[in-house]
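Run log, item B.
One chain of 153 residues. Sequence copied directly from the ordering sheet:
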Amino acid sequence: MQRLEKTRAFLTEFIIVILFFTISSVVIVKLYVAGNEKSIESMNITSGYLKAEEIAEKIKAYVDFSEDKVIYNYMTNEAGFTYKEGTNEEYYQYFDNDYNVSTYEEAEIIGYVSAKQKETSAGKLVYFTVEFKDNNKTYGHVEFVVYESGKMQ
């Protein structure tokens, strides 16, 4: 009888230990998955900002004030952005998760560039916004202004 009680006590203790390790392993796996998701999200945000800054620098280099309407040569010639009909200077392009140019069907992220021109007495100002979005989140957002001084009258 005493041997049966020792066996029951051992089995009960063994089951409690197994339960403790099971619960601990579930918590650890859940924390690992959450940390991995945060790491991926952080990499996407960093990549989005780097790509947005890259495009912003290229736009600054390619802006041409030689005509009445400012021409954004980079948008049409090099980057492959498409003009969005019915908008005031808005362009877009489709990218995969690694920010490689892709088709509409394969796109995970959409890059947007908008430009608003303003005439001032001192010259032209063009306000640009470059951003990358998916359905839920913005991964990179850069705003900048390009200025061309006018002739003094």
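Observations after the first pass:
- The longest strand covers residues 109-120.
- The CA atoms of residues 30 and 36 lie 10 Å apart.
Flagged for discussion on Thursday.
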